[in-house]
Each structure stands twice: as C-alpha cells, then as structure tokens.
Amino acid sequence: MRRLSLLLLAAAALLAAAVAVVRAGPEMPQAASVAGMGAGPGVPQAAAAAGMGAGTQVPKAAAAAGMGAGTQVPQAAAAGVLAGPGVPQAAAGGPPGKLSPDFYSQTCPRAERIIAEVVQSKQMANPTTAAGMLRVFFHDCFVTGCDASVLIAPTRFAKSEKDAEINHSLPGDAFDAVVRSKLALELECPGVVSCADVLALASRVLVTMTGGPRYPVPLGRKDSLSSSPTAPDVELPHSNFTVGRILELFLAKGFTVQEMVALSGAHTLGFSHCQEFASRIYNYRDKTGKPAPFDPTMNPGYAKGLQAACKEYLKDPTIAAFNDVMTPGKFDNMYYVNIERGLGLLSTDEDMWSDLRTRPLVERYAANNTAFFDDFSRAMEKLSMYGVKTGADGEIRRRCDAYNDGPNTV
Ligand code: HEM
Ligand SMILES: *[C@@H]1O[C@H](CO)[C@@H](O)[C@H](O)[C@H]1NC(C)=O
Ligand SMILES: *[C@@H]1O[C@H](CO)[C@@H](O)[C@H](O)[C@H]1NC(C)=O
Ligand SMILES: CC(=O)N[C@H]1CO[C@H](CO)[C@@H](O)[C@@H]1O
C-alpha cells in the first residue's frame, strides 16, 4: 500500500506554487523568455524564479520555410554504441574512445572553470537552467550519442533534431548557457573544447550546484557532423509510454532497469507542461475505458490541485507544473518519495510504482539518498559516454549550433 503522510498536506499547500505560468512568444530571442509564477509559501526562492522558453529557441520561420526532403541532412549516422551493459565504469580511461578526465589538462586546463563560471551565473539568474541543461543533455545522448547533435539549429537549408516536436520545450536558457560557455572557451583556447564536452561538464556543474553528486565526467568527445529531425521521436521516451516501453528503450541502448530508474531521478528538478499529464487529470479513463475523476494512482489532493492549475492549459499551453512538488529546485531523492505517495507528476513517473521491476528501486532510492546519488552518478557517467564520437568521427565545432562546414553552417 501506498504510504500517505502529513507531507501530503504540505504538498497540497504547495500546489499553488507547483504551477509555473511560462509565457514566451515564439518571436522572443533565445533564452530571453519570461516566466511569471506564483511562489507560494515554502517554495525555495531559487525554484520560484523562472526563465524558461517553451519552444523559443529558434525562429519558427526559418525551420518552416521551404525545405524539401532533398535538402535534409543525411539520416543520422548510426551511433556507435560504445557503452554497452557490460562496459566497466569508464573512468578507468580505457575504451570507449579515448575519453579521459584530464583530456584538456594541457590544451585548455581552465576549461571546466570557465564553463562553471558561465553556467553558475546563468543558473543564479535563471534557476531553471539546471533542469533544462540536464534534459538537453539526456536528449542529446539518447539520440545518436553524446555528440551535441541536439544543439544544431535548423536553417532554411536543413532540418535538425531541434525540429522534432519533442524538442519544442527544450529550454532556451540551457542552449544560451552552452553558447556563452563556448564563446568564453574560444577566447581562451580556440578550437579545442567540443560542444559535446561543454554539455557534459555544464550538466555536472549544475547537478552539483543544485545539491546533487559530483560524478566523474571523462572528456574528449567530438561533435557530430549530422543531426536528424526524425531521430528524436523514435528514440526518446514519451510521457504516455508504459514503463515497459521505456525500459525497452533503455535496455536496447545497454542500460539496466536500475540505471533507468536512477536517471529518472533527474525529474527532481524542473517542470512539465500540462499537456504531458493532462490525460491523468481530465477525462481520465483507465485501461478498460472506465472513466474516473482522475488517475486513481494519484493522491487526490494533488490531482485536484493540478486540475485547477492546468484549467486553462489548452488556451495557454505554456502552463507547467514542477516535476517535484515538494523540493522543486533541489537535486535530491524527493522524486522517489513523491512516487511512493502518489505525487509523481507524469504517468511514467508514477507507473514506476506499479511496475514490479522498478518499484524496489523507487523504494530503495526513496529511503536512501546516498544510494540514489551513488547510482545516479554511475548512470550519468555511463550516459555521458553513450555513443560518443572520437577521432575523425566528428569535429570540434567553432560554434555549437552549426557545423564548421556543412548544410547547417550559418
Ligand atoms: C524515463 C523516461 C523519461 C520520460 C518519459 C521523460 C519525460 C519528460 C517530460 C514529458 C518532461 C516535460 C517536458 C516539458 O513539458 O517541457 C520531462 C522533463 C524533464 N526531464 Fe525527462 N523524461 C525521462 C527521462 C529523463 C532523464 C533520463 C533525464 C535526465 C537524466 C530527464 C531530465 C528531465 C528534466 C531535468 C526535465 C525538466 C526540464 C525543464 O524543467 O526544463 N528525463 N521529461
Ligand atoms: C502518445 O502521444 C503522442 C503525441 O502526443 C501520440 O501521437 C501517440 O499516439 C500517443 N501514444 C499512446 C500510446 O497513447
Ligand atoms: C544507503 O546506501 C549506501 C550506498 O549504497 C549504503 O552504504 C548505506 O549503508 C545505506 N544506508 C542505509 C541506512 O541503508
Ligand atoms: C515539429 C515542430 O513543431 N518542430 C519545432 C521544434 O522546435 C523548433 C525550434 O523551436 C521549431 O522551429 C520547430 O517548428
């Protein structure tokens, strides 16, 4: 049985704060989006300020304007799956590729410090940067490997991963922080640090800054030479998938059930837009088609709070709720505690309780933050090496949103 506790009352009190109204017109420049959100009692200040652009990254016109199928970038080159299930923890410096934690110790020794300065100040100005960065990193790695393909901006000549619908809400602040980091790096050591490594390092800096563990990040990734708009939808997990289907995706890429559950702990940060969980709270029907006021696996107070908060979401699709209603801006194991209590936001979160393959891990991480941090660290390190390109398989981009030479060169 689900364990309920007094914290539920706190959660209900927090519901006003759980909802962020993010208004960002498509015409707004990258990362300049504005968010107004009600900061209720007890919400960490950091989590309350928000600057997150839903789909503001790229002028729509550019992507929409006349591009025939003939001008597309070749379907993403098959990603070499380097980090298989049995691959030892990579820090050892062996394969995959030639990644190593001190890859830049001679060529750009201050690389991490430079990136940290940029992203930390971005995070202080816009506290949703951390969540955005983590999600961008996950999407980059999960689609054709950690190769910065997700950063390529679509132009009128070629589509890219950013064109895919699922990328719509990848926040502009994370992209902006990467662009700024890269500019600073190019001043100090031009042409040396890849955008894929910037993403990996920036993600770690932000996980640590929000209270999470500092895990090893081997370096030396090259940036991709292609980015396909069709790749993300086939390979990224959706909010309406079953846990079984999500596990299939992870297992197919060489990740274990445990790694899937640990990585999902990233939902301790950030938001989801109402449409991602609307089917749980409006016109709900169970598998047999039987209607109910809301998904019965949800805590009723939580469900009602979300119903109220998302009431206008069809008119205003930018309304979003915190993934972790209890400690939204802190990287901790509260995400799992929430799941035990029916406070998981996405059905994919909550279903990890129903599914007996994942429930023991949810219980373990909910009970033991150290266990979560240890497993998250190892899983992030492995994710960060998934499908990486080294040597001639890639390049060091001069700017992260364009190939040095190719159809997306701006
Ligand atoms: C296990 C399957 C997963 C599913 C089905 C899933 C789905 C989603 C969805 C639907 C959103 C809301 C997007 C929006 O409305 O803008 C979201 C947000 C997020 N996801 Fe996941 N995700 C999964 C795994 C992961 C993993 C492995 C990571 C990172 C390691 C991650 C990091 C995040 C973060 C940080 C956010 C918040 C983004 C923000 O506030 O800008 N997710 N995810
Ligand atoms: C999941 O959502 C997508 C788009 O939001 C939709 O096209 C698809 O049919 C849905 N899949 C399931 C299994 O409901
Ligand atoms: C929590 O997990 C860590 C790491 O697995 C372990 O060393 C520790 O004994 C656990 N603590 C408790 C109270 O079970
Ligand atoms: C299919 C789709 O809506 N793609 C969008 C993805 O995001 C980019 C950048 O915001 C848009 O230009 C695309 O139209």
UniProtKB/TrEMBL annotation:
The residues listed in the UniProt record as binding heme b, with positions renumbered to this chain, are: H267
EC numbers listed for it are 1.11.1.7
The main place the protein resides is: secreted
Stretches of the chain forming a coiled coil according to its record = none
Q: What is catalyzed by this enzyme?
A: 2 a phenolic donor + H2O2 = 2 a phenolic radical donor + 2 H2O
Give the matching InterPro entries: Haem_peroxidase, Haem_peroxidase_sf, Peroxidase_pln, Peroxidases_AS, Peroxidases_heam-ligand_BS, Secretory_peroxidase
Q: Which residues belong to any copy of the Plant heme peroxidase family profile domain?
A: 98-404
State the Pfam families in the record.
peroxidase
Q: Report residues binding Ca(2+) 1.
A: D140, V143, G145, D147, S149, E161
Manner of cofactor binding, per the entry note: Binds 1 heme b (iron(II)-protoporphyrin IX) group per subunit. Binds 2 calcium ions per subunit.
Q: Which GO terms describe its biological process?
A: hydrogen peroxide catabolic process; response to oxidative stress
Location in the cell: Secreted
Q: Which Gene3D superfamilies match?
A: 1.10.520.10, Peroxidase, domain 2
Q: Name one GO cellular component term.
A: extracellular region
Q: Which family does it belong to?
A: Belongs to the peroxidase family. Ascorbate peroxidase subfamily. Belongs to the peroxidase family. Classical plant (class III) peroxidase subfamily.
Explain the purpose of this protein: Removal of H(2)O(2), oxidation of toxic reductants, biosynthesis and degradation of lignin, suberization, auxin catabolism, response to environmental stresses such as wounding, pathogen attack and oxidative stress. These functions might be dependent on each isozyme/isoform in each plant tissue.
Q: Protein name, please?
A: Peroxidase
